[in-house]
Each structure stands twice: as structure tokens, then as C-alpha cells.
Fold Enoyl reductase (ER) domain-containing protein.
Amino acid sequence: MASTTNMETVALVVNEPKADFALTPIVLDEVRPDEVLVEMQYSGICHTDIVLQQGLLPMVEFPAVFGHEGAGIIRAVGSSAKDKSLAVGDAVLLSFTTCGDCKACTSGQLACCHRHPEVNHGAVRSDGSTPARLKSDPATTVRSQYFGQSSFSKVSVVQEKSVVKLCSASELGSGVKPGDLAVYAPMGCGFQTGAGTILNVLKPTSADSLIIFGMGSVGLAALMAAAHLKSTQPNSTMLIIAVDIVPERLALAKELGATHTVNGRDHPAGQANGHKKADPLADAIRKITPNGAGATMAVDCTGRLAIIETMIAAIGPQGTAAVVGVPPADASIQLDPLTFLLENKRLIGVIEGDANPAEFIPQLIDLHRRGQFPVDRLCKVYPVTQLKDAIHDMHAGSVIKPIIDWTVVE
């Protein structure tokens, strides 16, 4: 077992809002009884990591280490770990953490933890401490338990509640290939969020019409989950409408199961107010649906306020609109409350696909292995030293899910 105190490693530290991700030596204080020491192999890059780095979600103090889609190998297990199957050498995936005590947690609705923002975005332990400090300045602590894991660190002290076991050491290389860890790393957030919103929350049937706004990793995961459901429904007429502004992403959406695609650049989103105010994008989408009545359900994966308003306008009577993308802090949207009432519409927020990661992630992996959830088509791996290239390619739209490779770092 690795040493469990004063452990030296390197991490992508952000010293202050808008500062670069800097590969920096840090020291981890200890592995506590309810924690696990994980050597990262891969980590997905999520748009939220960039939002945090820019200081646009004021939930964490700096300096900090982000990353919340980790995949790695256990190097030590705390003495009070509840999952007695966890052992040194196990391959694990990392997801969000929870308080464990609120009504949602005790009833098994882990993604609805009432303290989700605090325990995940605070990036510290429950007692307010943090494992990491700068090696060059031991007096400077570094927030290093973002989502209970901070996977932008070569080695990280992880809350056990964030850990999902993938396989034992003996199975790695046979049943599970090392390269699988790269593809499965984003299961802990992006892929889980998109797929879970469809499979756990909206659950479209063969007669439904579904709009998905934003063909990033979350949106495409939602689309693949919907296409999977449609494939299990005999004679299904489900409509799956993909909306984006990047033609290449819309083409990929079509390949992955979208029945229709809409380019937002051809139909700009208006400042929708119900569907009474001019909104060319909402109008274009409604025309696709039966009798032009609007979709029965929709998911926004962009977090853009105008798109959320368009989404509400594009659903029909008794339709459900789900906000999944992270909107700006302290922002607001407009809607026509009378139309919203009279048409019996519903607007809901969905965190992490309303998933229990320990149960849901294995289900997604099984779907992937059966060819029903081809997330490997979204992924591209970059050495951690090429992080800037990975972020650039994600913003440019040429890559859906960039993944950083920690195995290149000693």
C-alpha cells in the first residue's frame, strides 16, 4: 500500500479566477478513514471545469484543483470504507459526492442531495479542510476535493462516496482494457447526466417527441439514450429532434439516432415569452412535431437563457422542459405564466441525471458494450501537457469530449 501521509504529486492548479491551469507540485496531507487514494489514469474535461476556472460559479475559493470525471487505480483505502470490496489495485470511476444525511440521500435520491452545491462545488471535506497544499509554499492550502475527487490531479484523496468500482486488479487487462478507462471516465458526470435525464427522468415512449438542445457530450449522451429506448419500442414513432449551431455535430447526431436536426443559426432563438413572442427557432421546431403542437418533452444542455426560453416555447400542452446545462449565476428567464398555466407545462431542473452512480454507471457501461451507447465516438484523448489544445478543440467544436491522459506523468 502507498504511503498515506504527506504524499507528493502534481496537479492542474488554478491559483485565482481566470488564471491558467498550471501543472504544479502539491502535497496531500493524509487519507482519512472515509477516503480513498486514487492514482488518476484519465479525466474527462467538462465545460463546468472551465466555468469554474473563469470564476463564473462563485462556489469555490482559490487556489483550487478541478476535474470531476476521473478514472484511476486505487492506491490506498481508508480504514472505515463502507464498501468492503474496494481494494488496492482496483480500477475505479469517480462521480459526485453527497452529504449522506438529508432526506434525498437517505431515500436513495443521491443526485438530489439537498447540500449538493456545498459538498461538491466547495471542493473541501465536510470539516472544511482540504487535502492539498502547495509544495513550494506549505502554508497555502489548495481546494482539492471538487466533486469529492478533483480529478485534475495525478494522485488525489477522494471521498469514498464518489467512488464507483469498475473492476478488480486481476480483471484489468482482461475483461476491462486499460483504454476503457479513458472512454468511461466521463460516465461520472457528462454521460451520466445526459443519459440519466432521458432514462431516469423523462422516459419518453414511442409516441413522444423529444427536443435536445446542444450536441455536446451531455446532449449527445441524452440523444443516444433516447435512440436506445426507441430501439426497444416496437413500431416506435418517437421523434428525436437535435438542435445545435455546428453542422458537424448535427451530422453526428443524425448518425447516432436523431430523426430531425435543426441548425440554430438558420432560425435564431428569440427572447421567447411563452410562444407568444416571435421566436423563429421555437417555430421551426414546433413545425416538425405532430400538428405543429410542440414537443412533449425537451432538454436544454446549453445553459443559455435564450435557449431555455425557446425550449419552454417549443414544448406543447402538458409538455415537460428539463434544464440540464448550467446557466449563469444570478440570472433569470422570462415566460408567459398564463400560457404556461393554461397549457399545463412543466419546467424542471435535473442534476446528474437523477442517478445513483454506483447503480447507473454499470448500466451505461453494459449498454456501451452492447453497442447501444457508443460514447467512444465522442472521445479524444490528449496528454495532460496538451490541456490547452484539448480545451481549444472543445470550444471550437472539433471534439465533443476531450479526455486528459495522466499516465504520461510519472
